[in-house]
C-alpha cells in the first residue's frame, strides 16, 4: 500500500529539515522517495497546516523489570484511582505512576511515542523485563543491561583481569540478556550496600572488593568503547540526591578520560550545598561541564509536582531516602543475590523547598545545555514524574511566560535560589524534535529510526500546531508505527507490536568456562537458563528482535 | 413524605454497584431521574428501574428491601440521611461514609465500614472480614464514627483503624485490631488468634480473656475511671452495650504490640 502524507510542515533534524512543507511517501512500512512511475496513491492524508515529526523515542523510561511489579504491588491505591476499561481493540489495565504494561504502550503511542528504552535491565532479571516489554504494545523497546555491582565483574576487577576478559564478559552478558547498551547504577554501590556501606563516593573502596566506582566506570566505559557499542556507557552516578553531589558529578565527567559517557537523570546529581538550607542548584556548573566535554551526553530526569513512585536499582540511595516515602511505605531488596532495588513512593510538592528547587534545577539544565543533540527529555519515568507529563514538560521548555508563571507559584525560598527567571531561552520545535527523536535515535544507535528520510521505518507523528504546546503534544492527530496508522486524534485505533532493539557484540566463548562454575556455585539459575534465546522474544508471534550494527561496522 | 424504597425485583447473578444510590446524590431528583440512573451489574450497566421497584419520595430516608449479599457499596461516601437495608448487604457497606446512619437487618460482607469517617453503621447480623479496615495498600482504615455489630465479625476487624469505635456484641475472628493506629474496639464475645497484631496505639476492650501473643506485656489490674464514662456514651445505642449491666471499670491491662511501638492496650474485664 502506498500512503501519501501531503503538505505537512516537517521537522526532521536528522535530515536537516527544520519546518519545511513537504510530502512524505510510505510503502511497506518504510518511508520512500516520491514514486516517479505514477503509481496511484492508495491512501492520502492531508496534513496541510500540521506539524510532522518522526515518532518520539524515550531513551530512559522504567517500563519493564522486577521493580515495576514491586511498585505495582506496593501501590494498589495508585492503580485504583486510574482504572482503564477495555475497548474492542485495547485491553483493560490501570494507569498513573507505574501503569500496567498494556496501558503504558497505549499511552505512549497516544502521546506520539513509538519507542521506549528500559534503562535498568538486571541481567538475571532480564527475562522478566523482556516479558513485560513484550506485553507493551505498539512501541518499540529495548533495554540497557545493568552491570557494575555484580559480583562477577567485581571479582574480575579485584583479580586484575585484563580489559579483554572484561570485554568478553560485558559482551557475553549483553548477548545473554538481549540489551542495546550497558548501564551502571551507583557503580559498585548496590554491592557495597550488602557489605553494610551506606554511602560510596567516587573514590571510596568497596569494603569487600577494594574497587572504587571510578575504576568500575572507567573499565566499563572502555569495554563499551572497545566493543563498538554505539550507546555510550549509561551512568547513574554516585550520591544520587545528596546535597553537594555536584562535585561528584563533575569528578565523574573528568574521570572518564574522554570516553563517551551518558549521565542519566542528571538533575538528581546537580546539587550544591549553599544557602540557608544547605541545598542549592549546581545546574550552571553541570551544564557548563556538558557544554565543554563533547564526550558527555545526559538526560535530565525532570521532576514534576504530584504523586509518583521512585523505582531504582540504587538500593543504597533509596534506603537513605526511605524516610521521605509518601505514602509511608517502601521496599528495599536484594535481587537474586546479584543486584538490588529500592522502591519508594514520592509526592513532589511545589511548596516544599527541596522539591521546588529540584524542579527548577532540572529546567535550568535543559535550558543551559546548548547542544540539544546531547541532552534528552526524560522524567526518568516514574522517578521524577510519570511519562504522561511529557507534554507539560515540553510546554515548560517552549514557553517562557508559562514557565515563569509556574515558577512564581513554587516555594518562595526556592525561587530566590534559582536563575530560571532570567533564562530567556525557549526551545524550538526543531530542538524538541532533536531531543525526542533524532538525537535519541543517534545516541541509542538505532538504525532506520528517528528520521523521515527515505529508507527509514515509517514511525511518524502528526500534531496540530497550537501555541499551547501542552495541548499540542498531548494529543497527536495521527501516529504511524511502521507505516500503519495506530493512533488517530489521540486514541489508539490499531494495536500493533513493536520490535525489540538489541546489539550483538562479539566475544570469546571461553568466558563461559569461568562463568559456568560461578553460576553453579553462587547464582539462583544455571548458566544455560540465564541466556535468553531469540525464540523467547518471538515465539508469541508478535515480538521480534532487531539487531543494530556496532560502531564502525555500519 | 414516605421513605424512598428500592425493592429488588429478583436476585441477580452478578453483583450490583449501589454507590450511586446514596442520599446526597439523589437529593432533588424526581422518581423518573432516579429510575434512569444506571448501575453497574457485573459487566453490564442496567437502569435502576430494571433492577428495583421504586416507591416513596424522601431521598433522605432510603430503604433497600429484599437486599442480598450481591449489593455492594451500599451507602458509599454517605453524607447525611439514613439508609435502611432490609436483608443482607454485600461488600464495602458504608465505605468512606461521612455522616448519617446505615442500618442492616441481616449480614454484611467484606470491608463493611471501610475507611469510614463519621456516622453510625449498625449491622443486626454478622459482618465479614476487614470490618472498619483500610482498602488494600492504604495506610489508614476507619477514621471516625461508630460501627455496631450485633452478631459476629470476620478476621482483621479494625485493620489499620485510625479513630472511632467498633462495638461487637458477638465474637471477633483472628487478627482483631491488626495494625491498629488508634481508636477503640469492644468485643463482648470471644476473640481469635493474633489479637492486636502489630497494633501501635488504640484500645481493645474485651469481656473474655483472649489468647495473646508473646509481644503483649501484662501491666497488671486496674480500676479505670474512664470506663464508666465510655459506657455512658453507649447509652443511646439500641444494643447490649447500652445495658447498665454491661458496664465495668475493673480490668486487666496488657500493653503491645511490642513488635511495633507498643503503645496499644488490651483491657480485659475482671
Descriptors:
heterodimer; A: 554 residues; alpha/beta; TIM Barrel; 9-stranded mixed β-sheet; 20 helices; B: 270 residues; mainly beta; 13-stranded mixed β-sheet; 4 helices; 17 strands; elongated; Formylmethanofuran dehydrogenase subunit A /formyltransferase/hydrolase complex subunit A (chain A); Metal_Hydrolase (chain A); Amidohydro_3 (chain A)
Task: Give a written overview of the molecule.
The complex is a heterodimer of chains A (554) and B (270). Chain A is of the alpha/beta class and 554 residues long. Chain A has one domain: TIM Barrel (Alpha-Beta Barrel). Chain A is built from 20 helices and 26 strands. In chain A, the strands form 5 sheets. In chain A, strands 6, 9, 10, 11, 12, 13, 16, 20, 25 and 26 form a 10-stranded parallel sheet that branches. In chain A, strands 1, 2, 3, 4, 5, 21, 22, 23 and 24 form a 9-stranded mixed sheet that branches. Chain A is globular, with a radius of gyration of 22 Å. The mean pLDDT of chain A is 95. With 270 residues, chain B is mainly beta. Chain B has a domain at 107-269. In chain B, 8% of the residues lie in helices and 34% in strands. Chain B contains 4 helices and 17 strands. Chain B has helices spanning 23-26, 31-36, 48-51, 226-232; strands at residues 3-8, 16-17, 38-41, 44-47, 52-55, 58-67, 71-72, 79-87, 99-104, 120-123, 143-149, 163-168, 184-187, 203-206, 217-223, 250-256, 264-269. Chain B has a 13-stranded mixed sheet with strand order 5-1-6-8-9-10-11-12-13-14-17-16-15. In chain B, strands 2-7 form a two-stranded parallel ribbon. In chain B, strand 3 and strand 4 (44-47) form a beta hairpin. The longest helix of chain B is centred in the last third of the chain and has 7 residues, at 226-232. The radius of gyration of chain B is 19 Å and the shape is elongated. The mean pLDDT of chain B is 96. Chain A: InterPro entries: Amidohydro_3, Formylmethanofuran_DH_asu, Metal-dep_hydrolase_composite, Metal_Hydrolase, Metallo-dep_Hydrolases_sf. Chain A: Residues 44-493 form the Amidohydrolase domain.
